[in-house]
Specification:
With 287 residues, this protein is α/β, with parallel strands linked by helices. It has helices at residues 49-55, 69-72, 88-94, 97-110, 120-125, 197-209, 229-245, 273-280, and strands at 7-13, 16-21, 25-31, 36-39, 60-63, 80-83, 133-136, 142-144, 149-154, 163-167, 172-176, 185-187, 216-219, 250-254, 257-264, 267-271. Strands 1-2-3-4-5-6-7 form a 7-stranded mixed beta sheet, with helices on one face. A 5-stranded mixed beta sheet has the order 8-9-10-11-13, with no helix packed on it. It has a 4-stranded mixed beta sheet with strand order 12-16-15-14. α6 (197-209) packs antiparallel against α7. The chain binds zinc ion (2 copies).
């Protein structure tokens, strides 16, 4: 298997591979009869095309769950990529040297050996190509891989244009950053970057109503596949549990600002008081 230090490959089934960038971001390659679907590209610390060519000789369509840099800045290696239009601006806004440098420094603190496996300066300087073709996906649209049909499911919350991808035949759901099994879910950024908890809850309840169509959940970070129960833990958390217990939450600090971290069963939520206040409907008071 064509593993590298940066990208490790795991075969999940005959038609599904997980490519994990820097032990952190899971990208999925779903191989159909006619073509393959690459769901997210990571930061693009390395050209993934040799790995993709080894895994499949078929043409690869590249789609993004959302516009955060850890999911879409690897677009630089592809002629055409697809995203929901509401996250296109986010993708472009993240396409800066500063964003790359800030997150790369964060990654290097966790994985110092990475520095000897890539040209960090060149990486930070190289923005997405001006002629990158970007196609837009809409809610309910079906991507046809001939033997497989993948539905784009708009799930606003973590971002406004967040998409999950549901493979209709097998029920595999690729959940991006919106459902995780114990890994932190960010609801921490400003209102122009992330939708509120009400939008998240609505997205999750629509999925829960389609529970019978979902057989397994493949998140973009952390344990995979995630237990299906994670969806219901998150719904319970946002519907009632967070409201009752946020007073016990612990402060959380990051380079993006300060907030709080909430744990409930499989849920690990990182959020700002701005997000909590709009959810509670009043300013946040902590004892
Ligand atoms: Zn994200
Ligand atoms: Zn992410």
């Amino acid at each position: 298997m064509n593993n590298s230090f940066i990208n490790t490959v795991e075969k999940l089934s005959d038609d599904l591979y997980m490519i994990t960038e820097t032990r952190s971001i899971h990208c999925y390659l779903l191989i159909g009869t006619e073509k393959a679907l690459l769901i997210d590209t990571g930061w693009g610390y390395e050209d993934p095309r040799p790995i993709l060519e080894e895994l499949t000789g078929k043409p690869v369509m590249t789609v993004f769950t959302h516009g955060d840099g850890d999911h879409c800045l690897g677009a630089r290696y592809f002629d055409e990529v697809f995203i929901h239009p509401l996250d296109y601006g986010k993708m472009r806004r993240n396409d800066t040297g500063e964003e790359r440098r800030g997150m790369l420094e964060h990654r290097l603190r966790k994985l110092p050996e990475l520095a000897s496996h890539m040209d960090t300066e060149s990486y930070c300087r190289t923005l997405l190509p001006k002629d990158l073709k970007v196609g837009f996906l809409s809610d309910g649209e079906i991507i046809d891989l001939w033997d497989k049909h993948v539905e784009c499911v708009l799930t606003p919350g973590h971002s406004y244009g967040h998409l999950m991808f549901l493979e209709k035949e097998s029920g595999r759901l690729f959940s991006g950053d919106q459902i995780m099994d114990g890994h932190n879910i960010w609801h921490f950024l400003k209102r122009d970057e992330q939708a509120g908890f009400a939008a998240t809850l609505s997205s999750l309840k629509h999925l829960a109503a389609r529970e019978r169509e979902i057989s397994a959940i493949f998140p973009a970070h952390g344990r995979t596949p995630a237990a299906k129960q994670c969806l219901f833990d998150l719904i319970e958390c946002l519907e009632s549990e967070l409201r009752e217990n946020y007073q016990n939450d612990i402060p959380f600090h990051s380079h993006k600002g300060d907030g709080y971290q909430h744990f409930f069963r499989s849920v690990n939520l990182i959020y700002s008081d701005e997000r909590l206040a709009e959810y509670l409907g009043n300013p946040v008071y902590r004892d």
